Structure prediction request, 259 residues.
Amino acid sequence: MLYFSGPSFIIFLVLMLSISICRADSNVNSGWQCSEADNFTSESSFRINLDNLLSLLTEKGPLHNGYFKTTVGRSSGKIYGLIQCREDVSTENCANCTRESIAVALHDCSKSRKVQVWFTWCFLRYSNEHFFGVWDQSSMARVNDTNFDDASVVSKGLIFMSEVATTAPKQPLMFHTAVLDAGQFGKRYGMAQCTRDISRTDCSKCLDSQLVTFRTTIGNKRGWEVYGSSCSMWYHDYQFYFNISIPKNDEKFTNTSCT
Prediction:
């Protein structure tokens, strides 16, 4: 495993084995980030507010198109929290992912005031500092460091993902998936998503910054994922997202596994 760091960017190169054609049904813990300098005690007002916050995120997130943000507490104990599931994830899977991400936060970041947890299906973030509507440039990248792609596909892939990044901010929930036909090399699948607290303009900036990461760091890898505090991008040679059915009025969100 290799680590590259900068003022606001950390990249992790990890082995990701492509052993199946479709992996939409797999919800994986992709990483977490915890603060260390501003920990709190279990008896503090912050902990009480955190418990209340996580309860609200668990209850409300899956029922609001997979997205909910709120604030709990006052003054030094105030806490801001957000949960967002991918648009293609069902209400049930969103609820499961929310619980799993909270479990990771409480286990691995039990005393931290600033926490971010990335799962395949959802993203959890809470902090004692206001972050709603603020584009955060920090990111974490996962790539298949042993599986290289043909140069012609890499070139097409960059153009393809640039188009995905351009389209996503224009969508109702700032989420977009697409398929690239790479001819004899098969298909490539792309996804881009922004957290819904930021503006469409900042969504574009966020995704553009992740494209820079792809061009300068990831390069000719067949599969990669960039997770950020404000946006995420995925690119693989297998379908990793669900086929979705957008709900109308009060209907429940549904999805089907990829085929």
